[in-house]
Fold this sequence. Notes:
The protein is α/β, with parallel strands linked by helices. It folds into two domains: 196 residues, Bacterial extracellular solute-binding protein, family 7 (D-Maltodextrin-Binding Protein, domain 2, 3-Layer(aba) Sandwich); 132 residues, Bacterial extracellular solute-binding protein, family 7 (D-Maltodextrin-Binding Protein, domain 2), CATH 3.40.190. The protein has 13 helices and eleven strands. The strands form three sheets. A five-stranded mixed sheet has the order 2-1-3-10-4, sandwiched between helices. Strands 8-5-9-11 form a four-stranded mixed sheet. The chain starts with a helix and ends with a helix. Beta-D-galactopyranuronic acid binds next to strand 3. This is TRAP transporter substrate-binding protein. It comes from Anaeroselena agilis.
Amino acid sequence: MNKRTIAILVAVLFVLTGIFAGCGGGDKKAADKPAQQQLVLKLGETHPPDYPTTLGDKKFAELVTERSKGRIKVEVYPSSQLGEEKAVIEQVQLGAIAFTRVSSGPMAEFYKPMGVFSLPYIFNNGDHMWKFLNGPDGQKMLDGLQGSKFVGLCYFDPGARSFYSTKPIKSLEDMKGLKIRVIQNKINMDLMQALGASATPMPYGQVFSSLQTGVIDGAENNFPSYLTANHYQVAKYYLVDTHQRVPEVLVMSKVVWDKLSAEDKKLIKQAAVDSVKTQRELWAKFEKEAEAKVKAAGCTVTEVKDLKPWQEAVKPMIQKYRADYGEVLDDIAKAAK
Ligand code: GTR
C-alpha cells in the first residue's frame, strides 16, 4: 500500500469511527457509555519516531491524555505514514486528519503571512527567532491561521537550514548552476535564482533518491534532517550559511477544533504550549549530535565566514517581498535588539 492509499484509508476510518461521539454534546447517550467517549485524534509527522519534533508531538500527546484523564487520545504517526507534508496539510484543512507538525515553509502556500519565514538571513540566530516567535507577532501569526481553516497551537525549533551537495561547495560561486531541491513555495524558487542555482521543488521523501540518481545536485536543511533522511550519505558537502530558520508549527484542523468544547480547546492549546520546552531541549541536543555524526561519517562541513556576499545577492529579492512582508520584516529586525 502506498502512502496516499494509507492517507485515504485513514481519512475514511476517521469518518467511519465517528470520533466525535461524546464530544461537544452530539451524542445524547454518551453519558451512559463512558467507554465510547474517548476522542481519538491523529497527528501526522514527517520525521522518524525519535526525531526531536516527533518527540515534541509525543510530549503534546502525553500531556493531552494525562490532563484529559484518558478521554482524549492523540495518536502520533511519524515517518510520513499519513502522507507527505503538503498532502497532510490538505487533509488537516479538510478535517480528515486532526493535527500535523509541519514546517511553516509549506504552510505559506496555505497561509501567506507565514511565507516571511522563508526569506533568507532575516534572523541573526535562534534567540532572535524565538524572541520574535514568543512576542505578539508570533502569536498573531498563529492566530491568523484560523482564516485558512487551521488552528496554530505552538512553534517548535527548526534549527537553521544550510546547503548541501553531491559536488564540493565552499562558496557562493560554487552554487552557480546547481540544481537544488527546495520546499515548494515561491520564495524558495526566487531564493535559488538569487544565489545563481536552480530550484527543483519536490516532497521531502523524494530527496534521497533524487540525490542518488542525480536528478538534483543538492538540497538544503538543518543537520538533524540531513542526518536522519540519510542525505549525508550521498551529498557529502555541507555548507553552513544558515540561510533560513523556518519555524516548525503544530497545527490543528479548524474543522475538528470547532467541534470541541471550550474546556477541551483550552486543554489542547495548553498542552501544545507546554510541549515546546521539551522539544526545544531535545532539539538543541540533537542538533549538535547530528553535526558530530555527519562529520564522523566523513562529510565535509564548511562554515561560511563572511555572509555579506550572500546577503547582498538576496537583497533585491528581499526588497521585492517587502511589498508583502515589509511591516513584519521591520518587526523581525526590531526583535534583534
Ligand atoms: C525539515 C522539516 C520538515 C520538512 C523538511 C523538508 O527540516 O522539519 O517538516 O519541511 O524539512 O525540507 O521538506
